[in-house]
## 1
Amino acid sequence: MIIGNGDINALIYSENDQLVMHLAKNDVWDARLITEEDPPLLNVNVEEHTWTDGGRPASWSHPYPTQTPPAVIRLQSIGEVTNAKIDLKLGLASIITSSGKATVRALAQMNVYYMETDRNVSLEGFPQSFLPAAEKTQANGVLIVKQHLPEDPDYPGMDVFSVLETRGIRHAIAIVTTRESSNALSDATQLVKSVLDQEPEAIVQVHEKQWLQFWSRSGVKLGDNDLQNWWYRQLYYLRCLSRPGAYAIALQGGYNSKANWHGTWTMNYNAEQTFWPAFCTNHVELSEPFIDLVNDYHPRARWYANTVFNSEGAATPHNLWPFEPDPKQCVSVNKRQLAFMPWSYGIGTAGHMAHNLWMHYVYSGDTIYLKDKIYPIIKDYALFYASFIEKCKLDNGKVVFGPSVDPEHTAFGWDNSPYDLAWSRHTLKAAIQGANDLGIDSDLVKRWSNSLSKLPYYPVSGDVIKVGDREDGYNIITPIVPLFPAEQVSWFSQESEKDLFKRTIQWIDSRYNRNNSVVMLNVGRARLSMTDDALNDTKNWFKGKEQPNGLFYWKAHGFYMSEQTAVSGLITEFLIQSVDNIVRIFPAWPGNKEAEFSNLRTRGGFLVSARQKDSMISDLTVESTAGGELKLVSPWVPIGAKYPNGSVLPLTPDSVGVVRVSMKKGQKLDFVKELIP
C-alpha cells in the first residue's frame, strides 16, 4: 500500500511476522554525478548538418544518482494479516492482523507519519551497497537514524535525519534533510514531539479535513465501476506524490534499493505524464513542483542550448537530475552534465516540458504566475527553436528540421521528427500568446511567427504518419504526438487531417510495444471521439495490470511508476475536453452508459458539471474562476444560459455547433434546453 502527503510517502507491506514501511521523501536522493570518464558532449553544427563527439557516458553506469529510502519502520510480531485497506477519502491505511490493528497516516498538515498500534515499532536504516551505513542513535526520548548522502566535486551532498518517538500506542516519525534545514535533527525532533503533544483526535481531524477538502474539489460518478475506481485511486496517488512547495516526484517513488533508469525525470514523456492530470481534475496546484523543477534547471538549459547546438535560448536533455548546479560554477568534466546518447540530444524535449507549464496558465488564467514562472521559460525555449530554425537548410521554402533524434527510435541525425515538429509549433504558439497576453516582446512575436511559417508538415508515408520507414517497435508513439499531447491537431481540425490521424492511430496500434504510450494512444482516440476503441483498449489493458493495492503494473517498468497517475486524466478525457479552448461534454463516452461529474476544469479556468443518462445530457453548469468567454459545443438546440436571477439568455450555435457566452470571474451559469424561464 502507498500513503503520502505530496512530499513524504511510504510503501507498506507485510513480511514474515512484521509490517514494514519503506519511508520516502521526494528530495532524498543520492545525487552524485561523477562525469570524469565521460566523453565530450555532442557538438552540433546546425548550419552544416554535422556533429562531433558524443557517446555513451560512463557516468550512467554508476548506481547513482538515485532516490533511496532514508529509513525503514518495522512493526514486530504482528501475526497474520487478515485485512489491509487504504481509505482514499481520509488518507488512512488500516492493517488488521491476528494480534490487533494498526493505522498509519502521512499527515497532510505536516511531514510526519502518524501511527497507532500496540506493537513494538522500530526504526532502522536502509542498507545500500553504494552508501555509507546509516548511524542509529537515541537521544531526548527519540530514536534517530542519520543517513549521509555523499557529495561530488560540484554538489555538497546532504544528511537525512529520520526520527521516531513513541508514547504508548502512538508513534510519530519525521524526516528532515540538511538540504531544507541547517537544524535538521532538531527540526525533525520538534515535529514528532509537536504531534504527540496534541490530542489524537485533534491531529486526525486536521488531517482528515485536508483530505476531504481535496476530494471536494471535483468528482465523478460513472456507470463503469472500474473506470470510476481507477479515477479516484490514481488521483489519490497523485496527491500522495505531489503538493505545492514540495520537490517534484520523479520516475518512481524512493521505495526501492535502486530505481530503474536512475529513477530520474525522463522528459520525453514520462515525467510530464505524471503531472498532466492535475489540470483537468481541478488540482492545478499539484503541477507546481514540476514547474519549480524546470525553473530551477533553467540556467543549465540555457548553457545546454549554447554548448551543444550553438543556439540562443534554452534546450534540455531528456533526463533531468536532482539539484543540478549552475554549470558556470561547475568544475567537473562537461560541467557535470550527464547526457545519454542519443536521446538527450533531441530538440523536441524542451517543448514537451513547456507544455505542462503552459497548461498551468491556460487552465488557471493566472497572469502573475505566467509572468513569474512560465513565460520566462517558454520565451527561452521559443528562442531556441527560432534560432535553430534560422540555421536549418531549406527545402522548397520549408526547413529541414534537424539534426535531431526521434525519441527512443532513431540514431542522432534524424530530420523532421513528428515529435520535434509538434513541440516546436506548440512552444512557438505558446510564446506568442504569452507575450501578447503580457503585452511584451512584440519584436520576438514577429520572429517566432516567421519561424512557425518555415516548419514543414509532419512526415506522411503512404496514408499515415511515420518515422521514416519504421514499421514497428515504437516505444513513444511519436506519430501521434501532434494530436496528443502537443495538441496541434484536434476535433476541430479539417476532416482530411482528422482522417490522417485516425488512420495513423489504427496503423500504430499493432506496431508499438505498450511500454509507455497506452495513455497517449487512448487520449488521442478520445480527442477524435473514437469512443469504442478508446474505452475498450483502456479497459482491456489496465484491467489486466491492476494490482490489489489499486495501482497498476507498468509493462517493462515494474511497480510504483509515478506516471500511472495519468490514468485519471485519460478517464477525464472521456467525459470532458477543452482543446482549442472549446468545451466538449461527454466527447468519448457511450450514450448508453450513465455518467456524472462535478467541477472538472477546462482551459479558461471553467469548472464544469454535467450528467448523462439514456444518451441525454442534463444538469450542465459552468463556473468561471478567471473570467472570459466560454466556448461550448452545444449539447442541445435550442440552448440557453440561465442566470442566478432566473433570466435565460438564448444562445445560437455557429456552423460547428459552438455557442459563446461571456462570464465574469466567480459567475456560475446553468445551461438549459428550454428558453422560457
Note: The domain at 591-672 is CATH 2.60.40.1180 (Immunoglobulin-like).
## 2
Amino acid sequence: MKSSSRGCSAERAAWSRRHFLSAALSAGAALTLSTQAKASLAQAVEFKRLVRGSHHIVFATPVEASSVWEAVGGRKRIVTYSRLVISESLGAVEPSERELMVRTLGGQVGDIGQIVHGEAELALNTPSVLFIGQAKDQPLFIQAMSQGEYPTKSGEKEPILALSPRLSEIDADEASAVVVLNKQRLSVARRLVQGVAR
C-alpha cells in the first residue's frame, strides 16, 4: 500500500477514535445528568470505511491483559493493554511480528474499575477478527471501538464471527460493518475484507 494512502488512513483512524470516544463520553455525561434520559442510537460504521481506516486487520487471540492508569485526552483514566497472538492477517498492513499489543479504554486497577460503553472487550483466549487502528505517537487500538471487534464461535468447519458483547445499540444498515460481518464464516470475512482492500 502506498505511503500517501497509509498517511490518510492514519489520519482517518485518529479522527475515528476521537469521534467514538467523544460520543461515548457524551453519552455517559447525558445519562449522568438525567435519570430519565433515553439511550440514543450510535452511528454504525460502514464496512468499507472500517477496512480502509484500519492499519492491521487480523484474526488473533488475546492471551494476556493488564490495566494501568494513564493520561488520555488530558484526563487520568484506566486503560487496558492486551497482548494478541496473531493467527492470520486478513488485510491492510501485515504485522511484522506475530504478536501485537493494543490499548482499550477502561479496566480495573485495585478496587477501582472503569467502563467505557461501546469500547471493545477483548476477552482472554477468545479468537477474534480485529480491526486495529494506528495514530501517530499513540498505542495501537481497536478501530471504531466495539464495531471493530468480532469474537468468533466454533462452527462445524470454521470459526463464525459474532458481535462484540460491548456493542452499543446502533442504527445500522446493510452497508454497516456489524451487518456485513455478523454470523459470517471466517473465510467469508477474509474474502470480504480483501475485496475492499484491493
Note: Confidence is low (pLDDT under 50) at residues 1-6, 25-38.
